[in-house]
Amino acid sequence: MTGATAFLASFPSPSRGVWEIGPVPIRAYALFIIVGIILAIWWGEKRLQARGGRAGEVIDIAVYAVPFGLVGGRLYHVATDWQRYFGPGKNPVEALYIWQGGLGIWGAIALGGVGALLGCRRKGIPLPVFADAVAPGIVVAQAIGRIGNYFNQELYGAHTDLPWGMEVFQRVNPDTGQPDQLNGISTGVPLPESPVHPTFLYELIWNLLVALFVVLMDRRLRLGHGRAFALYVAGYTLGRTWIELMRRDDATQVFGVRINVWVSILVFVGAVVYFVVARKKGDREDLVALRGIPDAEQLVPFPGGSAEDKAEDKAEDAEERPKVPTAPEPEEPKDEEEPKPETKKD
């Protein structure tokens, strides 16, 4: 496939995924992961405040959840694709090279949830409330992260002649002259399987649709008790199952099927069961009532912080304000009794 026909029937992959600024490598994969995290935190803040949370609480919890999630994602990836890093001719140290790609979403969710639990306990927020607030942002962050896979020329499927096929090219490291698909620069020579199914793009689009679906269902049903998060997990795994079956990158097989397919199926079933069972818990939680705030009007936003913080500041100011002595109120004059006339005794 060459010339105009190739142009009309496919789109090219980027020429590189790493740029050098002096001695510092700027990696597209890492940049898009960071952008996704920032967006998820920003959107989560908006949603949690709409449920009665205070400004800045999602950021505070993310300080725990994000590092835990990154470590968990990498551990899952290394555990399920251990043959890439361990064995004859392999370099185990590369298991630590998180910037080269390779984050398993299930490890990120599992260990990230542990970090979120620690943060939620410090803030007095039930974990299901927090999870429901950040669910759409998480799946959008996953979609943004898939753009990094596009720059890395990874996570694609088999050869295709469909109009949206992606051209993948051989890359060469400019310093060594050796083939290097991750850090190299495109030679313009297509790989033998090119063009291919852009399965990362399929997942990107699917994730955005899942985020939209969760938001619409959340507004309609007022989902609470972790049900919005369960809906996100169920929706994501449903798409991940068929997309994973299309991928052609190396992966651990269980009974001849990629391990992530089995994990997606099991997690999908668990999420659906939880979504149904948690319905018995009733309507969405009232975070204001759970925190024991008597007046919901205190949560009306105001410049400089949450309204609840403002009310607390007023109370503290009142306690710390020095008391000015006041003069005693004058007593009302008492009516004097008229003297009784003296009577002479006989």
SSE arrangement:
Blueprint: H1 3-8, E1 10-12, E2 18-21, E3 24-27, H2 28-50, H3 57-80, H4 105-123, H5 127-152, E4 165-167, E5 169-172, E6 185-190, H6 199-221, H7 227-246, E7 253-254, E8 257-258, H8 259-277, H9 287-290, H10 307-320
Parallel strand pairs: 1-4
Antiparallel strand pairs: 2-3, 5-6, 7-8
Please provide a written account of the structure.
- With 346 residues, the protein is mainly alpha-helical.
- Helix content is 51%, strand content 8%.
- The protein contains 10 helices and 8 strands.
- Helix 2 packs across helix 3 (57-80) and helix 5 (127-152) packs parallel to helix 7 (227-246).
- The N and C termini lie far apart (148 Å).
- The model is unreliable at 1-8 and 295-313 (pLDDT under 50).
How many DSSP H or I helices? 10
Largest sheet data: 2 strands, parallel
Q: How much helicity do the residues have?
A: 40-55%
User: Structural class given helices, strands, pairing?
Assistant: mainly alpha
Low-confidence stretches: 1-8, 295-313
Shape: globular
Terminus-to-terminus distance? 148 Å
The H/E string reads HEEEHHHHEEEHHEEHHH
Strand order of the largest sheet: 1-4
| Average pLDDT metric | 83
Radius of gyration: 31 Å
Portion in strands:
5-15%
- Record field, number of beta strands: 8
